[in-house]
């Protein structure tokens, strides 16, 4: 609990800082708080994962600090708007920290060694600070276009042949990074909405996976046959995470697609939409067992556990969120 509170405090320092040096300090506090949370004596891969994570994040932090100091020699340290080249130099370590492609190579292997709770923290909370800093200086240029396209392409193709659910969610996260960077072009509110919905959907999936104790795709076929409702909730949550209408995950993608079309970015949005179909394919592969309901089995009679109540609530939100949002928008 201590390390979690310092992790959040580091995040808040970064967000509220008015200088790059203060933001860097917040990132370091955040990093050093997460390393102890990663340690787990029951998992032999945890040490390797935490070491990899520390080295990569330390490299990104050192690079960022070097650029900040170099920047302060020619500009004020409190400046957000810089030259085009300086912006790219600052964005690169921040993109490395957030796991955007093509700077994503550390992400899948680190995720593979973490518990599901830490996976959730790494995929969501740990991305808030670098994404917030990225949003301060983002503008549509060739560099950002390459990052967006690389993220959606690698996120889609990378997860295509995976059997580990952790790696599938990792590549899904990389794919969503491309969409989030695109959402930043629309303004702060839009990418925050996207990130909030992505976090809710990720929490939904993980809250279903933890009680089921599954880590690989083939284990979904071996889930308790009486637990058809949990299989169905996993199925709908993953499709929502993939952005399939009429689920909640489609809402931010819908708005982004409309924005990109209105701004004549047809090529980028076409690639993003096509590759979203690939991500939906590997989500469907995980949930294939949800379709297999034999008539001889006691299908829907199931005693709920307290740990699964959260999953039910979040899944209901995921299934009805788009409808509720549309009704609210039309009402106002």
Explain what this protein looks like in three dimensions.
It is an enzyme of class 7 (translocase). Keywords: Electron transport, Membrane, Mitochondrion, Mitochondrion inner membrane, NAD, Respiratory chain, Translocase, Transmembrane, Transmembrane helix, Transport, Ubiquinone. Belongs to the complex I subunit 2 family. It catalyses: a ubiquinone + NADH + 5 H(+)(in) = a ubiquinol + NAD(+) + 4 H(+)(out). There is one protein chain. This protein is mostly helical. It has one domain. Helix 2 runs antiparallel to helix 6. The longest helix is centred in the first third of the chain and has 29 residues. The radius of gyration is 20 Å and the shape is globular. The chain starts with a helix and ends with a helix.
Average pLDDT over all residues: 84
Overall number of strands: 0
Structural class from helices and strands?
Answer: mainly alpha
Strand content: under 5%
What is the total number of structural domains?
A: 1
Report low-confidence residues grouped into runs of 5 or more.
Answer: 294-302
Shape: globular
How would you briefly describe this protein structure?
This protein is mainly alpha-helical. It is built from 14 helices and no strands. The model is unreliable at 294-302 (pLDDT under 50).
Top keywords for this entry?
332 residues, mainly alpha, 14 helices, globular, Complex_I_Subunit_2
Chain-wise SSE layout:
Layout: H1 2-16, H2 20-38, H3 46-74, H4 84-98, H5 107-112, H6 116-136, H7 142-158, H8 165-184, H9 188-212, H10 228-241, H11 250-262, H12 266-286, H13 288-291, H14 309-331
Helix pairs in contact: 1-2, 1-6, 2-3, 2-6, 3-4, 4-6, 6-8, 6-9, 7-8, 7-12, 8-9, 8-12, 9-10, 9-14, 10-14
């Amino acid at each position: 609990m201590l390390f979690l509170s310092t992790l959040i405090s580091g995040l808040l320092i970064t967000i509220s800082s008015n200088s790059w040096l203060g933001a860097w300090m917040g990132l370091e506090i955040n990093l050093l708080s997460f390393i102890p949370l990663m340690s787990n004596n029951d998992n032999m891969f945890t040490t390797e994962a935490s070491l990899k994570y520390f080295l990569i994040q330390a490299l990104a932090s050192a690079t960022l600090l070097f650029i900040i100091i170099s920047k302060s020699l020619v500009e004020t340290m409190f400046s957000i708007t810089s030259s085009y080249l300086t912006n790219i130099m600052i964005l690169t370590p921040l993109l490395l920290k957030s796991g955007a492609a093509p700077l994503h190579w550390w992400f899948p292997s680190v995720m593979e060694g973490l518990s599901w709770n830490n996976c959730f923290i790494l995929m969501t909370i740990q991305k808030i600070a670098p994404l917030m800093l990225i949003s301060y200086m983002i503008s549509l240029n060739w560099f950002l276009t390459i990052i967006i396209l690389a993220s959606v392409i690698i996120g889609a193709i990378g997860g295509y042949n995976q059997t580990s659910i952790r790696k599938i969610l990792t590549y899904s996260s990389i794919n969503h990074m491309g969409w989030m960077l695109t959402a930043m072009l629309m303004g702060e509110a839009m990418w925050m909405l996207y990130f909030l919905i992505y976090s809710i959907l990720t929490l939904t999936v993980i809250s279903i996976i933890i009680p089921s104790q599954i880590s690989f795709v083939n284990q979904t076929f071996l889930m308790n046959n009486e637990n058809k409702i949990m299989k169905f909730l996993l199925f709908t949550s993953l499709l929502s995470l993939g952005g399939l209408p009429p689920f909640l995950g489609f809402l931010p993608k819908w708005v982004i697609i409309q924005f990109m079309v209105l701004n004549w970015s047809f090529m980028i949005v076409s690639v993003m939409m096509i590759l979203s179909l690939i991500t939906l394919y590997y989500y469907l592969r995980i949930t294939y067992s949800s379709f297999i309901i034999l008539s001889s089995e006691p299908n829907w009679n199931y005693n709920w556990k307290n740990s699964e109540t959260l999953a039910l609530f979040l899944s209901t939100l995921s299934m009805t969120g788009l409808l509720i949002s549309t009704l609210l928008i039309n009402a106002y």
